[in-house]
Q: What sequence folds into this?
């Protein structure tokens, strides 16, 4: 590898990590000034950060599976409820422990994703519309099942592993490896990127767009279920709701996903990028909560930043164009002045 | 050769072809939701032994449908242009909060109505500006605004419920304010949508924005018009919400954006707009949802199951009312 390549790669990695690091430093300073304590001042803080990051990462990756291909799956939140409530409770019944809960939830989440995917491919109605319909159906099942209690992990035996830092870290590493392979190095990933470019061209070149679509839904279902298990382990319970309340988790994970795609573009790896996005947003949330701000005030700050970020993302090319235009005008003016001086 | 002989020689049409011919009929998108609504009423009428046909039941269905119907009529303007806004529920909640605060400060019901409508318009225009001036996709703006408006309402209200003078609300309700305001708004929407050049432009832009721009139409201006009209509806729905319960809480408007979309689609309109859009789809859809809910409740089905049935019926109706593209659906294919 020559010097230029190494330098370029280093620059890319630096661009990827600069945002989470900047968020951490800014809040470390603010929190220390206001409360006298840093963002991560205890092991509990670290555990909270790890748990929330992995939940957010899984959900954002799940959204990333479909959203970039023009499919906004609004049923992802309801799939999470289905996977966790059914998978978790079955695992608890058979005393399969924390790993059993995680595995069974992922399997049922994937099955829910498969159902949505198969329906989408066969019915071919708009993904958002299908998502609404499936949300209504899934919420009905997850609410009605298990006496409307949802999933309760608080006080249950053999589930402590879901709160173990090493286990969370191991799952995170495994997820990153599997997702990097699937998205970056597998046929599925290549096809997905081709479809992302142009569905028509991809179909014409022999890619089975329907199979790829179903796989995306399955993967998304498995990921949201994984997110749900860690979220339940963090909160203790997962209470089901009706009236499309599960959409909240879809909307709240949009910011890390969009942020992650942007960060991932520096290293051409959305899997790592989304992790960066999740870490940044969760550090921001932790930093704000350390300031003892109310939940709604935190949300106002976070979503205002989301809006500003989206405005920046949408207009960055225009800003770049204006910057180049300025440079061009300056150069033209200087050239003209020099010529004028030469003539005189 | 006689007509009968010609018909005998012609190839027989398959069922799919026949369905396609029926679906492509220009009046199908209008008649289908009405037929579905009448079918639901007939089925539940028969299932309840005629109890469903009672005057009180119909009034109840209309009262339930009025808020969603107003909102769905409002957003049909936005959907027509090919934009999506699912934040209308939270926008309505913030407008209702502002309206209730204004009433509690001034004690003037007229000011409450005016402030709620103006808030609705301004908030919707803010969403539009984010989309038109800053170029952020309207659905992304909506997702941010759902959280942002909800957080602002929570910040203003806290855990408390903002109470508004119940007597005033009752007076407004008994005086038929809701019906009058809804009918006036609905007629206004119908006129703007179907009888003016602005309405035609909205549909054209929804169908093909590039083509519309090349024929001299200003897509941005049209988007502002659509969000303005939607803002009036959102403001009105906020007033209806206040006078229905005499209070505003953080729960108001949650998930309503989805209900509105559900009603609009059930009413026979594509959420990607275009030439087949209309202003009455929202009302038809809202009535269908309300009739379905009421009927299922009267038959004795639990609210949990009702939601599931609603989802299944919704998907079935959408499937029956939509085209099946060769490839997977994208914006261009709908």
A:
């Amino acid at each position: 590898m020559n010097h230029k390549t190494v330098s370029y790669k280093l620059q890319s990695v630096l661009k990827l990590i600069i945002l989470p690091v900047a968020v951490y430093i800014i809040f470390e300073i603010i929190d220390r000034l206001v409360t006298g304590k840093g963002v991560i001042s205890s092991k509990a803080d670290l555990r909270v950060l790890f748990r929330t990051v992995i939940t957010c990462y899984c959900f954002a990756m799940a959204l990333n599976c479909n959203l970039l291909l023009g499919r906004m799956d609004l049923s992802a939140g309801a799939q999470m409820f289905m996977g966790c409530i059914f998978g978790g409770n079955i695992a608890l019944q058979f005393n399969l422990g924390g790993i059993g809960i995680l595995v069974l939830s992922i399997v049922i989440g994937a099955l829910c994703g498969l159902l949505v995917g198969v329906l989408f491919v066969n019915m071919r109605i708009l993904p958002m519309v299908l998502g609404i319909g499936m949300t209504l159906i899934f919420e009905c099942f997850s609410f009605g099942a298990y006496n409307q209690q949802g999933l309760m992990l608080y006080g249950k035996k053999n589930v402590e592993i879901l709160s173990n830092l090493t286990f969370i870290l191991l799952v995170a590493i495994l997820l990153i490896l599997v997702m990097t392979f699937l998205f970056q190095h597998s046929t599925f990933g290549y096809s997905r990127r081709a479809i992302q470019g142009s569905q028509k061209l991809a179909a014409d070149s022999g890619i089975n767009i329907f199979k790829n679509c179903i796989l995306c839904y399955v993967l998304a279902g498995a990921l949201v279920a994984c997110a749900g298990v860690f979220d339940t382990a963090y909160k203790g319970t997962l209470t089901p709701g009706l009236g499309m309340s599960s959409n909240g988790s879809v909307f709240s994970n949009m910011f890390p996903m969009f942020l992650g795609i942007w960060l991932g573009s520096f290293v051409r790896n959305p899997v790592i990028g989304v992790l960066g996005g999740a870490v940044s947003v969760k550090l921001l949330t932790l930093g704000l909560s350390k300031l003892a701000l109310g939940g709604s005030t935190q949300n106002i700050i976070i979503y205002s930043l989301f809006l500003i970020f989206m405005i920046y993302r949408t207009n960055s090319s225009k800003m770049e164009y204006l910057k180049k235009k300025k440079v061009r005008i300056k150069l033209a003016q200087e050239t003209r002045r020099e010529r004028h001086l030469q003539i005189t | 050769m006689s007509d009968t002989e010609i018909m005998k020689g012609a190839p027989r049409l398959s069922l799919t072809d026949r369905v396609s011919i029926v679906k492509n009929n220009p009046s199908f998108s209008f008649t289908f939701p009405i037929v579905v609504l009448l079918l639901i009423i007939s089925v539940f009428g028969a299932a309840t032994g005629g109890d469903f046909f009672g005057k009180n039941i119909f009034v109840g269905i209309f009262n339930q449908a009025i808020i969603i119907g107003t909102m769905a009529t409002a957003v049909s303007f936005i959907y027509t242009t090919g934009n999506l806004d699912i934040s209308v529920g939270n926008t309505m909640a913030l407008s209702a909060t502002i309206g209730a605060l204004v009433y509690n400060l001034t004690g003037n019901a007229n000011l409450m109505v005016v402030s709620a409508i103006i808030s609705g318009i301004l908030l919707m225009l803010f969403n539009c500006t984010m989309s038109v001036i800053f170029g952020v996709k309207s659905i992304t703006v909506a997702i941010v605004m759902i959280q942002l408006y909800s957080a602002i309402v929570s910040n203003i209200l806290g855990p408390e419920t903002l109470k508004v003078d119940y007597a005033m609300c009752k007076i407004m309700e008994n005086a038929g304010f809701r019906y009058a305001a809804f009918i006036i708004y609905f007629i206004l929407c119908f006129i703007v949508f179907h009888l003016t050049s602005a309405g035609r432009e909205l549909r054209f832009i929804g169908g093909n924005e590039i083509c519309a721009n090349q024929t001299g139409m200003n897509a941005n201006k049209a988007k502002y018009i659509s969000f303005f009209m939607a803002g009036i509806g959102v403001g009105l729905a906020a007033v209806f919400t206040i006078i229905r319960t005499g209070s505003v809480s953080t729960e108001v408007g949650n998930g309503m954006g989805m209900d509105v979309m559900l009603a609009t689609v059930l009413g026979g309109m594509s959420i990607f707009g275009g030439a087949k859009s209309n202003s009455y789809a929202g009302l038809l859809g809202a009535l269908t949802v309300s009739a379905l809910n009421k009927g299922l409740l009267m038959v004795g089905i639990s609210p949990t199951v009702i939601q599931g049935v609603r989802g299944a019926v919704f998907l079935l109706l959408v499937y029956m009312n939509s085209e099946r593209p060769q490839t997977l659906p994208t914006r261009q294919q709908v």
The domain at 3-292 of chain A is CATH 1.10.3470 (ABC transporter involved in vitamin B12 uptake, BtuC). The mean pLDDT of chain A is 90. Chain A touches chain B through 57 residues (CB under 8 Å). Chain A has one domain: 3-292.
